[in-house]
Amino acid sequence: MGAFHAYDIRGVYNVDFDRDTSYKIGNFLPELMKCDRILVGRDARISSPEIHDALVAGITDAGADVYDMGLATTPMVYYATAVYDFDCSVQITASHNPKEYNGMKVSARNALPVGYENGLSTIEQWIKEGKPLRAAGSRGKVLPLDVKEKYLSFLSGYKADLSGLNIAMDLSNGMAALLVKDIFGKEPHYICDELDGTFPNHEANPLVAENIIGLQNLVVKEKCDIGVIYDGDADRVMFVDENAVFISPDLMIALLGHYFLKGNTEKTIVLQDIRSSKSVKEYLEPMGADVRTWKVGRAFAARRLRELDGLFGGELAGHYYFKDFFYSDSGILASILILNVVADFKRKGVTVSELISGIKKYENSGEINFRIGKKKEAMDLVRSYFVSLEKPVAEYDFDGYRVEFDNWWFNIRPSNTEPYLRFIAEASDSGILKEKIDKVRELLSSLE
User: Fold this and answer.
1) 119-123 contacts: CB < 8 A, separation 24 or more?
2) Which listed site, 68, 84, 201, 359, has its alpha carbon 20 to 30 Å from 147?
C-alpha cells in the first residue's frame, strides 16, 4: 500500500488509498490506540468529505466516539488533542501536495505524532493480512467539537505590536484562510485568501519557486517589509524579505532566537534538522543555545524535542516546533513570533534582509533531488568518496549521512515521502560548493 509513510498516511486518492482503506484505518484505530474516543478534523480538499465519512464510519462501527472538528488546520487538531486529553486524533490532509492527493496525520495523547515506526506500520499490516473488522455491539456517537475561538485566543496571546509593519501574506487557498485574518486583521495585503481545495492559484507548497511568485510580486508592488506564505494545512510557513528574496527556512530557526533567548542566562536546547545550515548553530550558540541535530520530519522532531525538553526547533522544510505548543509545529504560531521579531528590528531601523545577512554565512545548494533506485548504494558511494579525500570534523548517520569538513559539509538522505534521494551541501564559498555538487552529480550518474 503506497500511502503509508514515515510521517503519515498520504497518496493520490483512489490510487494509493481509497474509501475502503479509510474505513479500515478508522475501524482499526481504537484498537491500535487503545481508546474509545477519537478527534477528527479535515482540510478543504475535494476528497476530504468522502474520506472523513468513511473514516468516521469505521471508528464508530468499532464502538468508539468521534469528536468532529470539521474544517481545521493541522496544528488546530494538535492543539485540541492536547487540551482536551484525546488519546488519538486524525487530521485528514495531504499538506502541501497537489489537489489529487490526500491523507491522514495521526497523533496520540499530548499531540505526540504517530508515524510508521510507532503505529502506522501495524495498521498497514492489519489491512494487508485481512484482519477481521470490528463490529461493536454498540455503535459510537459523532459529536461536534468547535475549538476555533479558543484556539484563536491562544494564538493571539502571542501577538505583539505589529503596527508599522507592512506585511504581504499568501494563504495558498489553504487552511490558513480559516484563521489568519482573525489574527492579523485587515492590515496585511492578502492573496489566495479564500479556502479552495482545488488550489486554483498555485500548489500549496512554498518550497517550489513558482509557487511564491505571486507573493514576491505583492511584496514589490506594496513595498512590504516581509512576505509570508503558508502551506496547505498551515503547519508550515515560509518568508521572503523586503526585496522579495526567498529566505531559507532553516535560517528562521536562528531568527527565533531573538524571541526565545532574549536575556537568556543558561544553556537552552534548540533542535534543528540534519539539513540545517551551520549558520544556525553559530548564530544561536552565543545567545546561550545548545543546538542539537536530529532526523527530518514531525514524527521524529516533535518526539525528540519533548525527550530533550527543548524550548523550540525547526526544519529546512519550514516546520517550527515549540515547547509551549506541546512540542508540536504550527505555521501560524511561527509566523506570529517571527513577525514580532521583525517588527522589533524595524523599530531599530534594521530590515529583514539585513537581519538575515547577519545570520547567513555560507553558500548553500538547497535540496537537490536525484531519482535513483539504489539509494543506499548511492549514499555510501558519495560518503566514501569524500571521506577518502579529507578527514571529517563531524559525522551523523541517523538520517542518511551528514558529513562535515573544514570548509564544507553535505547531507544525503532518502526522501520519506517521495521517490528521491535528496542532497544538500554548504560551503565557505561558491567555488567550493560548485566543485562538490559537480562531483556528486558525476558520481550518481553512474547509478542512474
Assistant:
1) 119/32, 119/33, 120/4, 120/5, 120/8, 120/9, 121/4, 122/32, 123/4, 123/24, 123/25, 123/28, 123/29, 123/32
2) 201
List the one residue out of 160, 113, 94, 207 whose CA is nearest residue 333: 160
Counting residues of the chain whose pLDDT is more than 90, the rounded percentage is: 90
Q: pLDDT tens digit string along 87-101?
A: 999 999 999 999 999
Q: At residue 91, what is the residue type?
A: Q
| CB-based contact 355:252 (threshold 8 Å) | no
AA identity, residue 433: L
Q: At 108, which amino acid appears?
A: A
Strand 268-273, strand 289-294: pairing = parallel
8 A C-beta contact, residue 357 and residue 279 = no
Q: Is 389 exposed, middle or buried (0-12, 13-18, 19+ CB in 10 A)?
A: exposed
Q: How far apart are CA 397 and CA 376, in angstroms?
A: 12
Structure confidence by residue, pLDDT tens digits, 336-390: 999 999 999 999 999 999 999 999 999 999 999 999 888 899 999 999 999 999 9
- The pTM for the full model equals 0.94
448: pLDDT confidence band, cut at 50, 70 and 90? low
**Which residue among the candidates 22, 47, 95, 328 is catalytic per the annotation?**
95
Residue bearing the bigger pLDDT, 265 or 211? 211
CA distance 266 to 396: 26
Round to whole Å and give the CA distance between 233 and 44. 9
Tens-digit pLDDT profile for residues 247-273? 999 999 999 999 999 887 789 999 999
Q: How far apart are CA 37 and CA 59, in angstroms?
A: 9
Q: Lowest mean pLDDT: which of 142-146, 306-310, 444-448?
A: 444-448
**107 given a catalytic annotation:** no
* Per-residue pLDDT at 411 exceeds 90: yes
Mean pLDDT of the chain: 95
pLDDT at 417 > cutoff 80? no
